[in-house]
Design brief:
The complex is a heterodimer. Helices cover about 30% and strands about 25% of the residues of chain A. Chain A is α+β, with helices and mostly antiparallel strands. In chain A, the strands form three sheets. Chain A has a five-stranded mixed sheet with strand order 1-7-6-4-5, with no helix packed on it. In chain A, strands 8-10-9 form a three-stranded mixed sheet, covered by helices on one side. In chain A, helix 2 packs antiparallel against helix 4 and helix 2 runs antiparallel to helix 5. By secondary structure, chain B is mainly alpha-helical. A two-stranded antiparallel ribbon of chain B has the order 1-4. Classes of the chains: A alpha+beta, B mainly alpha. At the A-B interface, strand 4 and strand 5 of A face helix 1, helix 6 and helix 9 of B.
Chain lengths: ~250, ~240
């Protein structure tokens, strides 16, 4: 039985700017507000030369917009400080090309949900937060999964990077939560739908595990839950999670 | 009398959370205001901001007040997000969780008083949410804040939870144009009712579609309203649109 492939439909003729033509980096500055740099290549898209180019940064209730000139006459704004964002918070970015030749600004090309480098191709960026209260970690999935770690805990960076117990206890649950968000809440099951969106990237990642079928074969909610649990099991086996936990525990006992 | 704003620490947050749970179980104890100044449960801020026991007529009033009162500690609000807003919720507890005639209080979910960190419910803290709207939109956020401090109206609930709508001042202005009754100084009746042509939920649906085509951050509120289909006609009355 052929499974219908879910494709994203574009009725407006809006072009997609390949993320390979965009490079955005956040520049952390000790004790100061972060800023960012953006290198945009818009050639090959056949865009109106006088269309305006914008870079937008967003996260939660924070939003900032920067004018980058036009397609034919790009400029880099001098002030690129991300002053409206909380320190330690990494925004996502969006690039828009807007044509005003017919009156109201129409989006003729765009790219969205761009993570700045070095998180660019990272499936699970990590951020350290001061306001997690008594929680050790939390997963955010608003614009793609981000692992939030409690910066008030002294050893958290070391534990997250190389702690066996941390890996064993946290990562399987992260895999479960992310795949549940994708398959069940967002009903997205096509790993090949859009190579640039985080949902497809995670499904592709899961599909690389030995013995894991294409998630599109799951239609009923119970099938999806079973598929997710199968992925979590294989993840645990592949990364020897039980052994790591035992190792981590014996290290703690010493 | 003014009081310096403080931060509830982990112990203070735990006490506050226990109290909220007791209220949900029918307990009628008064709020544990002693933890506001106790150094075991709260700590002072490196900068000083002061608040006083003001009776807020609405969330708009509260947003306006806190936007001014918390200016000295603006940069600390993110670092101590949970502790500060929880402290303020307890300080103003009689307004965020008023005493009912039968002596009970109905606090609702914890996030109305103790902020959650995720985006999902972060905006639902009654005081932080009002502050956030006023800080971003000023008096033009009046539609989202047209409710008593202890109640979140549907405009706020639907808009503040959608990043692309909430952060666009033109969209919030357009909402005000369509749904605020200027004569009676309140939201228009039935605007929040689902199923009514041109209601809030329909506005959200249509604007989210328009957002795919138009650069809504550069379109004025008047132009945005002019793009809305015929079902919004009755809500547009009183404005000159194309």
């Amino acid at each position: 039985m052929k499974i219908a492939m879910i494709r994203k439909l574009n009725f407006t003729g809006r072009k997609k700017i390949p993320k390979s033509q965009i490079a955005i980096a956040v520049c952390p500055q000790e004790g100061k507000v972060n800023s960012f740099t953006a290198a945009l290549r818009l050639e090959g898209l056949n865009l109106p030369p006088n269309a305006d180019v914008y870079v937008e940064a967003y996260r939660g209730h924070s939003y900032m917009r920067f004018a980058y000139g036009t397609v034919s006459n790009p400029i880099v704004p001098e002030d690129r400080s991300l002053c409206d964002f909380n320190p330690g918070e990494t925004p996502r970015f969006r690039v828009k090309v807007v044509d005003r030749s017919a009156g109201l600004g129409k989006i003729v090309a765009s790219a969205d949900k761009i993570s700045p480098t070095p998180n660019r191709n990272c499936l699970l960026p990590v951020e350290y937060k001061d306001d997690l209260g008594d929680q050790i970690w939390r997963l955010e999935t608003e614009d793609g999964p981000v692992l939030l770690l409690n910066n008030q805990i002294e050893s958290i960076r070391q534990s997250a990077r190389s702690g066996d117990s941390f890996l064993a206890l946290v990562y399987p649950e992260i895999v479960r939560q992310v795949l549940t968000e994708i398959l069940i809440y967002e009903n997205h099951s096509d790993p090949d739908c859009d190579e640039e969106d985080w949902q497809s990237q995670w499904l592709k990642f899961a599909r690389t595990f030995p013995g894991i079928d294409d998630p599109q074969s799951c239609s009923a909610p119970d099938d999806k839950k079973d598929w997710i649990e199968k992925v979590v099991n294989v993840f645990c086996r592949k990364w020897k999670v039980k052994a790591k936990f035992a190792q981590g525990s014996s290290g703690d006992a010493d | 009398m003014k009081a310096p704003v403080r931060v509830l620490n982990a112990k203070g947050l735990g006490r506050f959370q226990e109290y909220l749970q007791k209220l949900r179980e029918g307990d009628c104890s008064p709020p544990p205001v002693e933890i506001l100044m106790d150094t075991e449960t709260s700590m002072e801020l490196p900068q000083t901001a002061e608040v006083e026991k003001v009776d807020f007529a609405s969330r708009l009033d509260a947003g306006r007040y806190f936007a001014e009162a918390l200016k000295p500690v603006g940069v600390l609000l993110s670092r101590h997000h949970r502790g500060i807003w929880s402290w303020l919720s307890l300080f103003y507890f009689d307004q965020v969780c008023p005493l009912q005639a039968d002596g009970e209080r109905f606090p609702g979910r914890d996030y109305r008083h103790i902020p959650e960190t995720g985006f999902g419910n972060r905006h639902r803290h009654l005081i932080a949410g009002a502050y956030s709207v006023f800080r971003l939109h000023g008096e033009e956020g009046r539609l989202l804040l047209a409710s008593p401090l202890h109640r979140e109206n549907k405009f706020h609930h639907e808009i503040a939870g959608r990043q692309s709508l909430f952060t666009n001042p033109n969209i919030v202005k357009a909402l005000d144009m369509l749904y605020f009754d200027r004569r009676n100084r309140r939201p228009k009746r039935t605007a929040q009712n689902p199923g009514v042509p041109g209601c809030l939920l329909r506005f959200i649906d249509v604007v989210q579609q328009l957002d795919l085509t138009y650069d809504l951050h550069s379109i004025s509120a008047v132009d945005l309203v002019s793009l809305l289909p015929r079902e919004f006609k009755s809500w547009k009355e009183g404005f000159v649109v194309r």
